[in-house]
Write a structure and sequence with these properties.
It contains 22 helices and 31 strands. The protein is of the alpha/beta class and 713 residues long. Helix 14 packs across helix 15, helix 18 packs parallel to helix 20 and helix 21 runs antiparallel to helix 22. The radius of gyration is 33 Å and the shape is globular. It starts with a helix and ends with a strand.
């Protein structure tokens, strides 16, 4: 007992010596020999400790990094400690800043915003157009897409009642880029319309943001696709990653007739015109096939329908005869290809027809590396194109459906027109839109996890290609229309964040010093059924029918559910959302792509397309001004409720697309009439000349001139 007393006495002596050195900044537990030291602790740091815990002064290196604080010791080992969220006056508070010294030589684009998100939260490269300060301190990122805004609205004194759209000069001019066009504009509250002044409280700049598109073909690509699809890092993975189904996916068995290309799609994609595709009238009555061409014996499109009573229950073919077609061609003249092989495969996979064909003209190039055709194969052949046409006319009838990949080329080689087409290049469109198409080889890798066209110099096998198309369509019928629709040549942004999301010491403790791949949670909030869009890969999906629901969904995703059953407690790391009421009011929402029962469609238009004006203190307020006021208030409420150290991004995605859409519809009508056999150029209902072409190019520039805002709460 005496020795034990001496031992305790020695411990008290050590404690007293330390007290002399540290003054009052200490606490001693003499019974459990635990010593706690601190430097001017705050109230939040003065937490009770158990007898098994002790706190010591962190090492100088850690002190320099996080400004000091407690470090917990258990059984002689440090316990992982999360750094406190820094105050706004802290030197380590995160920020996103623009400087005239930044490497900015053109407008940023939507993918620039996506890459900024990947840099902060995952494995993206550092942006050159802004400076990101204290990246590890960012806790959350919220990105909101708001179509309908444009830069012209941010001019003080603007008459919203008379506003019809941005001036033509707002689009990028030709010639060398001008810094005034692509540098961000400083937001000054006193220089903004009152309804948009909340933007100056949230963001320092208005950024010109270029929407994705193709100037050569006059096409505007999907800004949603550009934001939510990330390029696969070259050093990550090998080859095409097979498509995977999101959590909660349910197959929706769908009949093949749901995937038939419409007459408009067939004409827009250059398919031969069948007389049944024409409206009853003079053109249809006087229809004649071009020389050497034939068409299947079908009088009316209705002849292809099978009575419901004759359709076997659960059948995806809907009583139709389905054939997969693939052809091989060789060069017989300048930019002229002729049929040299045809393969026709039935729905059950049996080969109905596989014939070599000798062209009428001498073959200049066998293109063996693609066609698989050689001189030795063709020399003994006597079958001609007319022979093949006759056999096909005997096989194909009103109940027949032809499917294939880029089938327009095959039908042109066959000089055959048929109105019932399922084309895999249309079922799985290229993310950048027509006229670009995804290769059959890529589709097989992505959606069938299969390698095709591996023969190299030996060329393609038309039977293999036909069966591949058949399997792609079968898989689509089994899984439903939405399957594969959101996939593209890249990686879904939500999947990337879940796979490569990076945490730092600030949020994950000492073990994450230097960055650790832990994955990031996410939420997608949008109008309509989010599970049927690219947002289906997010950790949480919230479907909405109004901007008010979108606002509530964002706040819920940021804060989390109390029980954590749907939205994790504490909220998700990344939120993407879209508000659409301004888009609908402005007429930017493309109603032609929506079916009436679509729950995610825009609000119903008022009769006569009239927009009611409101009165506020006996002053008439335009619907646009009212909508902008509500939008500004919504965004400000979201901003005010964000936790500290949250990046907040608002962007429009595009500029005003209305004139571009009008001219594109006009161009499509011109092509439709012009490509109809027997039509005369001077008798077309619309004309398309260089004047209209230049107008479309200018309208596309306006449509690609979006804006964005970047800030940190």
């Amino acid at each position: 007992m005496g020795k034990k007393k001496n031992k305790n006495k020695g411990q008290r002596g050590i404690a007293a010596a330390l007290a002399t050195f540290q003054g009052d900044s200490m606490a001693i537990d003499t019974e459990n020999t635990s010593i706690q030291l601190s430097t001017a602790p705050t109230d939040s740091e003065l937490t009770p400790t158990t007898s098994s815990d002790s706190l010591k002064r962190p090492c100088p290196e850690d002190d320099n990094e996080d400004g000091g604080g407690w470090q917990t010791i258990e059984n002689g080992r440090p316990v992982k400690k999360f750094k406190k969220i820094p105050g706004q006056e802290s030197k380590r508070y995160p920020g996103i800043h623009f400087s005239t010294q930044a490497r900015l030589f053109s407008k940023i684009n939507v993918s620039s915003l996506r890459d900024l998100i990947l840099y902060i939260f995952a494995d993206g490269a550092a942006p050159q157009w802004v400076s990101v300060k204290h990246r590890p301190e960012f806790r959350k990122i919220v990105a909101v897409m708001v179509p309908g805004l444009d830069e012209a609205m941010f001019k003080k004194g603007l008459d919203f009642a008379a506003y019809t759209g941005p001036p033509p000069g707002q689009a990028t001019s030709g010639g060398a880029p001008d810094p005034d066009e692509y540098y961000p504009r400083e937001l000054k509250k006193e220089l903004l319309p009152e309804v948009l002044q909340p933007f100056a409280d949230m963001f320092p700049h208005l950024w010109p943001v270029k929407a994705p598109g193709d100037d050569k073909y006059g096409k505007l690509h999907s800004p949603m696709q550009a934001m939510l699809t990330a390029p696969v890092p070259k050093n990550k993975g090998v080859g095409v990653q097979p498509a995977s189904e999101p959590n909660g996916w349910k197959n929706q068995r769908t009949r093949i007739t749901e995937f038939l290309a419409s007459n408009e799609e067939l004409m827009e994609n250059g398919f031969p015109v069948h007389p049944a595709m024409l409206k009853p009238g003079e053109k249809r009555d006087n229809f004649k096939d071009p020389e050497g061409w034939v068409h299947t014996r079908i009088e009316n499109l209705e002849d292809g329908k099978v009575p419901e009573g004759d359709v076997q229950q659960g059948s995806v073919t809907a009583g139709r005869e389905v054939y997969a077609l693939d052809c091989e061609m060789c060069v017989t003249g300048e930019a002229e290809y002729s049929l040299t092989r045809i393969s026709l495969v039935a729905w059950d996979g049996s080969v109905v027809l596989d014939e070599l064909v000798k062209p009428d003209k001498p073959i200049i190039d066998y293109v063996t590396r693609f066609s698989g055709i050689t001189k030795e194969m063709i020399d003994p052949v006597n079958t001609t194109l007319k022979d093949i046409q006759a056999r096909l006319l005997g096989i194909l009838g009103p109940k027949s459906i032809l499917l294939g990949h880029s089938l327009d080329s095959d039908l042109k080689a066959l000089k055959l027109a048929h109105p019932f087409i399922v084309d895999t290049s249309l079922l799985f469109p290229h993310p950048r839109g027509f006229p670009l198409k995804q290769s059959l080889k890529y589709l097989a890798q992505k959606f069938l996890n299969r390698e095709v066209q591996k023969a190299g110099e030996a060329g393609h096998d038309s039977i293999e290609d036909a069966k591949t198309c058949l399997d792609l369509v079968k898989r689509k019928c089994e899984k439903g229309k939405a399957w594969g629709a959101g996939e593209s040549q890249g990686e879904n942004l939500f999947k990337r964040l879940a796979r490569a999301g990076t945490a730092y010491r600030s949020t994950a403790g000492p073990e994450a010093t230097g960055g650790a791949p832990v994955g990031k949670t996410s939420a997608a909030i949008d109008w309509g059924d989010v599970s049927r869009s690219a947002g289906n890969a997010a950790t949480v999906t919230i479907s909405c029918k109004s901007d008010a629901e979108v606002e509530a969904g964002i706040l819920r995703a940021v804060k989390g559910d109390p029980d954590g059953l749907e939205v994790p407690g504490g909220g998700v790391d990344f939120v993407w959302a879209r508000m659409r009421e301004l888009e609908a009011l402005q007429g930017w929402w493309n109603r032609n792509k929506l079916v009436p029962e679509d729950a995610g469609g825009p609000p119903a238009e008022k009769e006569g397309n009239e927009k009611e004006e409101e009165k506020e203190d006996d002053v008439v307020v335009s619907p646009l001004e009212t909508c902008l006021k509500m939008l500004g208030e919504r965004l400000k409420r979201i901003y005010d409720n964000l936790p500290p150290c949250t990046a907040f991004i608002v962007y429009t995605g595009t500029g005003d697309p209305r004139e571009m859409s009008r001219l594109q519809a006009m161009q499509a009508q011109f092509k439709k009439e012009y490509n109809t056999p027997g039509s005369k150029w001077d008798q077309l209902s619309v004309q398309w000349t260089d004047r209209e072409d230049q107008a479309l190019r200018q309208a596309l520039k306006v449509a690609r001139s979006g804006i964005g805002f970047i800030g940190v709460k």
